Amino acid sequence: MKELTEIVKFAVNNLHQSYAFGVISEFQKKDAIEIRDELGIASSSETRAKPFNLLESVKRHILVRALQDDDEVKFLMSVPVWAGFKPNIDYLETEEQAILAGKRSALAMLWIMILPKICARPTILPSEIENQGLETLVENLLTSDESRAVLNRIMSLELINRGFVEEYFEISGLDSGYVIDDSMRKNRIRALIALMVMKASNCPFDLDKVFNLPEHRLIEETTLYIITMQTRASLAYQISGGGSSSPFDWPLVGTARVFGRLISTIDVLRRAASKMTTCSLFFSTIQGKEQVWTEREFTSFLVREIADYYSGLLRMSLGSGKNKALEAFIDILAGENIEIAARVMESEDRPLQLYEELSDCKRRAGFGEKARISPERRFRVVLANLRRRLEKTQSSSLAADDLEEEIVNSFDAIMELIEKHTDSLGAQLDKFTEQLCFETSFHILQILNLGPALGDLPWVSRYFAEEATRISISRGDLDSLDERHRVKRIVSAFTGGVVYLALQAQK
Amino acid sequence: MLPEDEWIIGISALDYFNGVGYSMPRSQRIEQKPGVDRDSSLRRRLNLDVIAYSKLEDQLETGQGEGEVDDALLASSESKENEASNDKPHGSIPLDSLLDGQDSMNLYAFIPGIFYCSGQETSVDAILIEVTQNERFGMTLSSFRPEDVRSLDISKGFMLDETGKGKSVQITVDTLGSFHSDDFLKDSGLTVEEMSYSKEIELARRLSGHMPLSELRRAYASSSFLQARLMKLLEDIDFFGLAPRRRIYVRNEKHPYGRVVEVDYRLLNRALYLRGESGVSCPDETELESQLNCLVFTKLMGAGTETTVEEAIIEMLHFIKTGLKKRTSKEEVLDRLSQEGD
User: Fold this and answer.
1) Given a cut of 90, is residue A501 above it in pLDDT?
2) Residue A162: which residues within 8 A CB-CB, separation 6 or more?
3) Is 60 exceeded by the pLDDT of residue B103?
4) Do A427 and B150 touch (CB under 8 A)?
5) For the segment B301-312, what is each residue's pLDDT rounded down to a tens digit?
6) What does each C-alpha distance from A68 to A19, A64, A431, B115 come to in angstroms?
7) Which helix (DSSP H) or strand (DSSP E) does residue B23 occupy?
8) What residues of chain A lie within 8 A of the CB of B38, using their CB?
């Protein structure tokens, strides 16, 4: 109980940081009529005929207000049905009942979604992450109505102690407006809450596997999701310095002490990830078998995270002229991260070795050296980087200029690959170029969630090839149409096609 | 991809095969003569423009009332369909002894219609491409991909009006080729002079700001390269009419860069001279003749029956003839084509 009180205290302390809590607080004070007015629903017979639709629209309205992520809203709207709950049509008789049920359900969901977030703190020490009583909190959330009542009591007490007199903690209305067979309810409510916590922790999960976990494993697994989220937040915080100065602000490349803490954090992440059975994030498939990442792969992940931070710096500094050395540094770090990780793993003192590696990359970057990797590897690295960047920033929020540059970079990597093989390709050169361009376009469009646009790619690309050629001819610039430039023109045409389709989709 | 490369443009009914017809030859002898026909200086890629007919049912109906010869042709080709799948392929030389179980598993892609080939500067009744594959750096390259064929929508074009704004127009001989993307960008206050990327990419990023995909499609229909190609096709139809060309374009292992092969249709001769034979004959290449007659394609239009190279070609010509109402002047053909999409 003491453990639970501690973590609840901590969570309530952080409540003010949560935007969603503001929305909870706002809606707790609203009654049915206010909410109805806010939604602009006329009290017509149509809404009365379909009270469940009204419930859903109230719920969606509140969730959209509180959460910035459309994907989360979509998930929360459908997760009760996935867990086996059915709309309870008989129970809702009046409009007011429907609105209040929608409100209760939405607010309970929001509480569950913010709990894992507010009990996390980026400044946490790696050694503390695993021993802060997270499992007790999850156990109380998941076990039974009684355990949730205990949590409710402690939370309410803590809210009052903190001066939140008008707000209250309430998650029992989670399934308001829904119904499920009594024999299944206990299990399904548990699965429902677990799924929501997993969603809140921002890791992908396999629904079927979650449903199949027995109670104690579900509690353990859910706790692991929160731990994973905390370690990732902590990593990001340590690398970025959390708004103040970062140990990785170019030309700084960290210190052995900084790397010491980063590596302990990665170790926590690895311990948690290797126990998880429903999340594929830290698994790779080797010969058809899923295996949790090796230590080396986790180290390589750390190096990529650091490289990503530097890429962010580079983008922000674009206005003040490109920093060639930083650009070269990122290129080496991202390109050779596997080799770097391998050397770090062999070393007796991993933090020191990592520091030496980054210092060495910086030195080489200063001479304008490029990463020592084959064009094939570079091509894969570029594609992987693009995927990672887009996963981090929703593609819609990626600025058009950045998106364009990323696409052009991916195709530049192709040019390098082709140039290396020009002789061995011989007469197949053009064909190979087109094939590779098409594959790359396919990958990029997939990453951008634009798979169906692939059908338009060929004619769109050809159009740009034709127009560019026409412009060259009309200006008498015949040299640019020389045989030597064919490969470049083909690659440019595909690049143009993908750029056009990607930018159009953003509109 | 590049405009100076070989291209083919033509008219076909894409729902006949739901795009391109594919076939696995039942059995066929592999003839490999590496290097014989390969000219390494030739680096040609094919790109096919197909103007699609969409209203096939209508055409079938109107087809009934058309000339008697057409009906006779159609009837004779239909009556043959049931037998076709059981028939041994006809060949002018006994092939069975040569087959020796050496089954080539290569796929064939096939589109019948009226096509103009830029490489040979002539028109053909069909395109037949053997899909060959080879491995490179762990990637499998195929000699033909579906995206090599693009269907064209020329129902509407795009041009600049007096104020420099773009507008949609009906495609006619006069409006063809009238749209230049750089003029459009200039009028939108942009020039292609200041470029940080290559021309293609610059055009793409700028047009993406001013033109949604549907407009780009129209701009494309009004582009000057398309005009040149379409005019070649229209002139060919104007001059030679809608009679079978008795030529097909073939690209296979033996002719990796494609060639136009003279053929004849026994079915057609039978209808005219009452001889009881069917199948494509191909005097210059007996080997190809037997290959051609091995191929069976599943027709997706109608009941989904199987068809042969020969039947499909004759049937398609019939559709085109009825679709165009036998008119062959450039203006009328273009007019019919551009109204198809409406």
Assistant:
1) yes
2) A12, A13, A15
3) no
4) no
5) 666 678 888 888
6) 10, 7, 45, 54
7) strand B21-23
8) 427
Phi, psi values for residue A277, rounded to 5°: -120, -5
For residue B247, the cross-strand partners are B262
Instruction: For residue A415, list chain B residues with Cβ-Cβ distance below 8 A.
Output: none
CA distance A191 to A208: 11
Given a contact cutoff of 8 angstroms between Cβ atoms, the answer to whether A28 and A166 are in contact is yes
Alpha helices in B188-254 (DSSP H): 199-210, 213-221, 224-240
DSSP reduced 3-state for B249:
strand
Distance CA A343, CA A160 (A): 54
3-state secondary structure of B45: coil
Please give, rounded to a whole number of angstroms, the shortest distance from the CA of B257 to a CA of chain A. Answer: 11
User: What is the DSSP code (8-state) at residue A320?
Assistant: G
Phi then psi dihedrals of residue A475, to 5 deg: -95, 0
Q: Cβ distance A275 to A269 under 8 Å?
A: no
Position A299, amino acid: T
- Cα-to-chain-centroid distance, residue B21: 11
A82 CB neighbour count, 10 Å cutoff: 15
Q: In chain A, whose CA is at the least distance from the CA of B150?
A: A459
Q: What value does the mean pLDDT take over residues A374-393?
A: 71
- Residue A136's alpha-carbon distances to A132, A199, A424, in angstroms, are 9, 19, 63
Residues of A in contact with B205 (CB under 8 A): 404, 496, 499-500, 503
Classify strands B107-117 and B21-23 as parallel, antiparallel or unpaired: antiparallel
* Backbone torsions φ then ψ of B94, nearest 5 degrees: -65, 115
How many CB atoms sit inside 10 A of residue A407's CB? 26
Instruction: Please calculate the CA angle B62-B11-B151 and round it to the nearest 5 degrees.
Output: 115
DSSP A173: G
Phi, psi of B249 (to 5 degrees): -95, 125
Range B16-35 average pLDDT: 54
Whether A504 sits inside 8 A of B180 (CB atoms) is no
What does the DSSP 8-state code read for residue B259? E
Burial class (CB in 10 A: 0-12, 13-18, 19+), A505: middle
CB B65 within 8 A of CB B58: no
Q: Would you call B141 and A503 a contact, using CB atoms and an 8 Å cutoff?
A: no
CA distance B221 to A325: 47
Q: Which residue of B has its CA nearest to A467?
A: B181
Query: From the candidates A423, A440, A467, which should be mutated to test the interface with B, based on the most B CB atoms within 10 A?
Result: A467
CB contact under 8 A, B150 and A462: yes
Burial class (CB in 10 A: 0-12, 13-18, 19+), A320: exposed
**What are B130's strand-pairing partners?**
B108
Q: Which residue of A has its CA nearest to B138?
A: A376
Tokens 């003491």 found at:
A2
Compute how many other C-beta atoms are within 10 angstroms of the C-beta atom of residue A79: 17
Q: What is the pLDDT of residue B74?
A: 31
Predicted complex ipTM: 0.73
> What tokens appear for B294 in the block?
């091995």
Tell me if residue A287 falls in helix, strand or coil: coil
* Structure tokens given for A59: 């719920």
Q: What's the token pair of residue B202? A: 């610059």
Nearest Cα neighbor of A375 from A403, A405, A410 is A410
